[in-house]
Design goal:
Catalytic activity: DNA(n) + a 2'-deoxyribonucleoside 5'-triphosphate = DNA(n+1) + diphosphate
Oligomer: single chain
CATH class of the largest domain: Alpha Beta
Order of helices and strands: HEHEHEHHEHHEHEHHEHHHHHHHH
Helix content: 55-70%
Structural class: alpha/beta
Number of strands: 7
Number of domains: 3
GO biological process, one term: DNA-templated DNA replication
Protein name: DNA-directed DNA polymerase
Enzyme class: transferase
Keywords: DNA replication, DNA-directed DNA polymerase, Nucleotidyltransferase, Transferase
Strand order of the largest sheet: 2-3-4-1-5
Length: 329
């Protein structure tokens, strides 16, 4: 059974005591474990660090936990080595009070392997689940629906380009979609994807952002020049810079007024671990008053471009030099 289908009604599903997962796609497996963790007390173990005796000991030692328990054992094929019959697993299944075990195997199992022990016994007790990536049509649909759910509209050309540069890899797509949801406007264009997402250019807009908010003048200028050479509009880069400044300001304000940093991230919809780490780094460099001043300076920059028609590319470059040089002095 496909793991994506299996997890759809996980809340009402009666999970069997022992199950086997063929993990062909790491993202699908991760999504399942996340869903499982919202319903069960989940413990992740590694087959190359276990033997059958220690597995039984671990499952018995956690019986005091009232919440339903699930054990996910990665590299389970290591645990299966040398097993000639399924008696151990039959005994284990009987001892699992209010618990389930998912044995994760990274290789695709052949029909012959499934008919040998201990898999033969395991599958007589539980389910065989396949963590495999959906086809390209389904992935396109999933990505598009994610944007719709977040109140965003993505142009077909932008979506096709996004799928192409990530090679339809679900883990990469998740990271890039998170960025676009956080930093792009309500309508996402091809230019947005080229500016914000991974590509073959020397620097991405996030390299520039990271350099700016860590006050690295040399890398800021190098990344800015590279982006402009590759045709990324200066105003688009500037928009991301402003977006970061506003979010950092709100985050700093919430923290200064008693919010825990993770709760502040939650209020801002920041869930990506990499972005959380980046924001924490930037907040060490920029205090609330610094961010207030930065937003004011960015407003003046915007004014000069829209009212006095200064060249966005040169204006942004001058702004970066003046601002970082002043902050470092």
């Amino acid at each position: 059974m496909n793991l994506l289908e299996y997890q759809k009604n996980l809340e009402s599903r009666e999970i069997k005591p022992l199950n086997v997962i063929q993990a062909q796609d790491e993202y699908v497996l991760k999504a399942f474990i996340d869903k499982l963790s919202s319903l069960y007390h989940v413990k992740i173990l590694w087959g190359d660090e276990l033997d059958r005796k220690s597995l039984l000991s671990i499952t018995e030692s956690e019986m005091f936990i009232k919440k339903k328990r699930a054990f996910v054992i990665k590299n389970a094929e290591e645990l299966f080595k040398g097993v000639k019959d399924g008696k151990y697993f039959t005994s284990l299944a009987k001892k699992l009070n209010n618990s389930s075990v998912f044995f994760v195997i990274s290789e695709k199992l052949s029909k012959q392997q499934l008919e040998k022990e201990p898999l033969k016994t395991l599958l007589s007790i539980g389910d065989l689940l396949e963590a495999k990536s959906p086809d390209k049509r389904k992935i396109r649909e999933l990505v598009k629906n994610r944007f719709v759910k977040e109140g965003k509209q993505i142009d077909d050309s932008a979506l096709d380009y996004l799928l192409e540069i990530t090679s339809y890899n679900l883990m990469e797509l998740k990271n890039e979609v998170d960025k676009l949801i956080l930093y792009a406007d309500e309508r996402i264009t091809l230019e947005d994807v080229k500016a914000i997402c991974i590509s073959n250019i020397e620097y991405t807009v996030f390299d520039f952002i990271n350099a700016f908010y860590t006050k690295d003048l040399e890398k800021s200028l190098n990344s800015l020049s590279s982006l402009v050479r590759w045709g990324v509009p200066a105003l688009q880069i500037q928009a991301v810079l402003v977006n970061y400044a506003l979010k950092l300001f709100v985050c700093a304000y919430l923290v200064e007024n008693g919010y825990d940093i993770d709760k502040a991230f939650s209020e801002l919809g920041i869930t990506n671990p990499y972005l959380k780490h980046s924001f924490k780094t930037y907040l060490e460099k920029f205090k609330l008053k610094d961010l207030k001043n930065l937003i004011h300076r960015l407003h003046l920059l915007d004014l000069s471009e829209k009212v006095y028609y200064t060249d966005p590319q040169e204006s942004l470059k001058d702004f970066v030099v003046e601002y970082i040089s002043y902050e470092r002095s």
